[in-house]
Every structure is written in C-alpha cells, then in structure tokens.
C-alpha cells in the first residue's frame, strides 16, 4: 500500500520544500519509489508555454518516479500570494476533486507520495475552505517543518494543536536552521523535542552554498508509518 506524508511548516518560506527534497532523497536512497506532489502552487512563471513553480519543479526533480509537471502540480497559480487570493486573480476555483484525483494518480505510481502544502497549516483555498480540511479528508500523516528562529516555538505549538484537533497524526518534525544568527537554537530544539510529542526526523543546518545533497540530514528510522 502506498505511504503518504504531508509536509507542513510553521510559516511560508521556512524550508518546507528543502525538507521535502531531503525526505524524497532519503527515501530514494532507501530504494523506495517516490512521487512529490505540490497540489497548489502560488507564484508561478510561464516556462515552456506552461505556468510552473520552483517548488513543484524541485519536487518533480527529486521524485524517483518520472512525472509530468501537471501531475506534480495541478493548480499552478500566478501570483505569489495566499492561494485563495491567487486563485481569485486567476479566475480559478480550487476544485478539491482535482486534488483528490491528483493524489490518487500518484498513489498508483509510487510507494511513497510526499505532498507539500502552501504556507502554514491553515492556509485558505477559498473564502470557505482551507488546505487542512482537504488533508483531514485524506487522512494524511503530517510532518511539521520548523524554521528555527525567534517565534518558532509558538508557531510550532499552535500548528501541533490544530493538526491534532483536525484528527491527524503528527508523525514527525524537522528542524531547519533557516536563520544562522538565531539565538538559543539548541534550546529551541530541546523544547520542541520535549513538547511536540513526535520524533525529530532530522536537522538541516544553515546551508550557505550547495543544497543538492540532503538525504544525510534525515533519519528515516525515526519515522513510524503504518
Ligand atoms: N537550511 C537552510 N539553509 C539555507 N537556506 C535555506 C535553508 N532552508 C531554506 N532555505 C532557503 O530559504 C528559502 C525558503 O525555503 P523553501 O522554499 O524551502 O520554503 P517553503 O517553506 O517551502 O516556502 P513556501 O511556503 O513558499 O512553499 C529558499 O530560498 C531556501 O533555499
Ligand atoms: C507565495 C508563497 N511563497 C506561498 N506559496 C504561499 C504562502 C501563503 C501564506 C498565506 C498566509 O498564511 O498569509
Ligand atoms: Mg515550498
């Protein structure tokens, strides 16, 4: 049976895509057939006659299964905004049936489907729906990426509370050192290790240069999937 992970984060721009790439590379090295999914990408550019987004391209390239762009990213929205605003500007409705179909398609092709959200846990898709509601409908196990910086403790604990209130399983978290100057980084990690009640799957240091090889930052043995 296909395994799933949904990658959320404490905010936008805190390293969900980098952590997703690290996880995909770790699974690839373990011989697992992987597919990345970025169901909704806001902030796309016309590339070869098609709207494309850099997160989705990263996931497409890091997947071991060969996938078309549109399979990785069914909703490619232009403006780099919250999806509900970007969709309005593009006169597009985010039809969740298409998200369901996209996930089902990848489930048939891969042993592990890794889905990256947009922004944080409660990001809106429309005036009445938010992405967490779709994740809850799909019952996807959740990995929380914490961008280690001042403010992350509150954001991480709020995310945990709502993920669990949504009836979902927080199966792990990843500490991503996005801010090389953040104070008390180890103390923050110690606090979250204690408080999140989920395994720390890896720590990604601040990477000044090459970000191509990331698998060694992840310990898949910490991940209990059923
Ligand atoms: N550990 C790190 N070291 C150095 N730079 C990092 C690190 N993690 C992330 N970055 C950089 O920070 C930026 C944001 O990272 P990323 O795109 O992975 O965030 P995100 O949470 O996926 O954002 P979005 O909400 O747009 O999907 C990128 O330029 C990325 O290269
Ligand atoms: C455009 C950006 N990089 C992300 N893809 C979308 C972030 C949405 C954040 C919405 C919010 O919580 O205010
Ligand atoms: Mg991203």
UniProtKB/TrEMBL annotation:
Keywords: ATP-binding, Biotin biosynthesis, Cytoplasm, Ligase, Magnesium, Metal-binding, Nucleotide-binding. It is found in: Cytoplasm. Its EC number is 6.3.3.3. It comes from Ferrimonas aestuarii. GO terms for cellular component: cytosol. This is ATP-dependent dethiobiotin synthetase BioD. Pathway: Cofactor biosynthesis; biotin biosynthesis; biotin from 7,8-diaminononanoate: step 1/2. Catalyzes a mechanistically unusual reaction, the ATP-dependent insertion of CO2 between the N7 and N8 nitrogen atoms of 7,8-diaminopelargonic acid (DAPA, also called 7,8-diammoniononanoate) to form a ureido ring. Mg(2+) binds at residues 17, 55, 116. Homodimer. GO terms for biological process: biotin biosynthetic process. Coiled coil: none annotated. Belongs to the dethiobiotin synthetase family. One of its GO terms (molecular function) is ATP binding. The keyword Magnesium applies. Its main location: cytoplasm.
